[in-house]
Amino acid sequence: MRQTVSVIVPALNEGAVIASLLEALQPLRAAGHELIVVDGDSRDDTCQRCNGLVDRLLESTPGRAAQMNAGAELARGDWLWFVHADSRLQGLPQAYAQAILDSPRPWGRFDVSLDGAERILRLVEIGMNGRSRLTGIATGDQGIFVRRELFGQVGGYPELPLMEDIALSRSLRRVARPATPRPCLGTSARRWQRHGVWRTIFLMWRLRLAFFLGADPADLARVYRACASPTPES
Question: For the stretch 91-103, what's the b/e string if a residue is b when 16 or more beta carbons lie within 10 angstroms of its beta carbon?
């Protein structure tokens, strides 16, 4: 029997960008694959933007881990592909699905490409992709994909307020190192552009190191929100 991919997109207030991704993924639906959006109580028009473009639109408590687990629970595909709402395809959608179906390993991720024109962002891409190849750890921006059975065996995403992708990768890496097929997966550079490239790099390295050293993810999430906020939190 032909295998299929369930694309799971967690979303929260992504009305400005989500339709572009969903429209690009429509050929996969036409080919028999599944497209699921899991909304975390958006206050904008995210859900309306999904009308007619998804097989399932689910509601979940906010939090990427909880949202992705909710999507995975109802997914019907043999493979689960977790894609952020601000991701952009840089090739035919069928090429991504075929790369997943042909994967020699039970999980993997794509190299990432940032959409900003600044030269320093090319260094960020090299660092992200190189670190992932070296460590076998993937981030959500890289479009993690995994066989549905293996996802269930490792317990899905740990429902952490931050670093859920790192934690899942660590569990999956115990089974196998990730496949890294082509093509690249584009993603928005808005985080780096909004808060400063070097500031964002140092912040994420600081948080990852603290996580690996055993820091409480809830504390790390508070640090992340405080540092990422353009104005002091009230």
Answer: eebeebbebbeeb
| Beta strand extents in 107-228 (DSSP E only) | 107-108, 112-114, 145-147, 185-187
Q: H or E element: which one contains 122?
A: helix 119-135
Domains along the chain?
Answer: 5-193 (3.90.550.10)
Within the chain, strands assigned E span 5-11, 34-39, 56-59, 79-82, 87-89, 107-108, 112-114, 145-147, 185-187
What's the full length of the chain, in residues? 234
How far apart are the C-alpha atoms of 22 and 50, rounded to whole Å?
7
At residue 140, what are phi and psi to the nearest 5 degrees?
-60, -30
pLDDT in tens, the chain (234 residues): 789 999 999 999 999 999 999 999 999 999 999 999 999 999 999 999 999 999 999 999 999 999 999 999 999 999 999 999 999 999 999 999 999 999 999 999 999 999 888 888 999 899 999 999 999 999 999 999 999 999 999 999 999 988 999 999 999 999 999 999 999 999 988 877 777 877 887 877 788 778 877 888 788 778 777 765 543 332
What does the alpha-carbon distance between residue 57 and residue 71 come to, in Å, rounded to a whole number? 9
| Contact in structure between 36 and 55 (CB atoms under 8 Å) | yes
- Are the beta carbons of 120 and 197 closer than 8 angstroms? yes
